[in-house]
Amino acid sequence: MALELHPLEQFKVEPLIPIHIGGLDVSYTNAALFMTIAVLLITALMVLGTRRGALVPNRLQSVAEMSYEFVADMVETNAGHGAEPYFPFVFTLFMFVLFANFLGLIPYTFTVTSQIIVTFALAAAVFIGVTIIGFVKHGAHFGRLFVPEGVPIVLLLLLVPIELLSYCIRPFTLSIRLFANMLAGHTMLAIFGGFAASVGLLAILPVALDVAILALEVLVAALQAYVFAILTCLYLRDALHLH
Predict the structure, then answer these.
(1) What contacts 206, CB < 8 A, 6 or more positions away?
(2) Is-contact 45 203, C-beta < 8 A?
(3) pTM for the full model?
(4) Cα 127 from Cα 133, distance rounded (Å)
């Protein structure tokens, strides 16, 4: 029997605990399970890694402290002065995306960030939050973000709509970037893995390619979490400082 490959089967959301309230399906799915696992792992890392606060840290404490310092430096460098109160939000985003990406690399798990609804929800939270911060801090003057300085009035008729459109599509570009990278990488892994399984003893080359792609996916998983967090910082800087 020929081996049938379904590289997109791994992205199927399936209910684990069916729950229906009226006509609304709120079932607990495999995606919800791995989001829960990611949150529990992050919580365990931060709680267990910081509860003793030893002068000579163990490995767990070192990872927790390095994660904290890495994101704190990112916020300070890219979001600018006054962004310190928003560090917990950026830190939570970074750690969630990072753990969700890495969890998805484990065989027989589910890649939460390969779901556009998940990445869009995260990006929408960033967009809405940053916009609210901008209006709370600057009021109606927040509109100056869309008006480039030193530009003739005639050109403003063209540039202001472009700036406004560019601002409004941020949640789409932010979510699609993460979703597309995770979807493409895992699809390639599934295709080459299935091909290696189908050719038997001739699988050396596809297996080698799979190993190379997996190494690349580890890098992409970390890089995409970084990109998501740093773009959040840049959007936050625009809201705080209007530039």
Answers:
(1) 192, 193, 195, 196, 199
(2) no
(3) 0.89
(4) 10
Domain that holds residue 15: 9-241
Higher pLDDT pick, 83 / 213: 83
Out of 153-157, 202-206, 216-220, least confident range: 202-206
User: What gap in Å lies between CA 228 and CA 97, rounded to an integer?
Assistant: 8
Per-residue pLDDT, 2: 41
Would you say residue 4 lies in a domain? no
Q: What percent of the chain has pLDDT over 90?
A: 55
Total tally of structural domains belonging to the chain: 1
Paired tokens of 202: 């001739």
Task: Confirm whether 186 is domain-assigned.
Answer: yes
Distances in Å between the Cα of 10 and the Cα atoms of 24, 106, 182, 199, 230 are 25, 12, 12, 21, 29
In this structure, is the dihedral angle defined by the CA atoms of residues 92, 94, 97 and 100, taken in order, positive or negative? negative
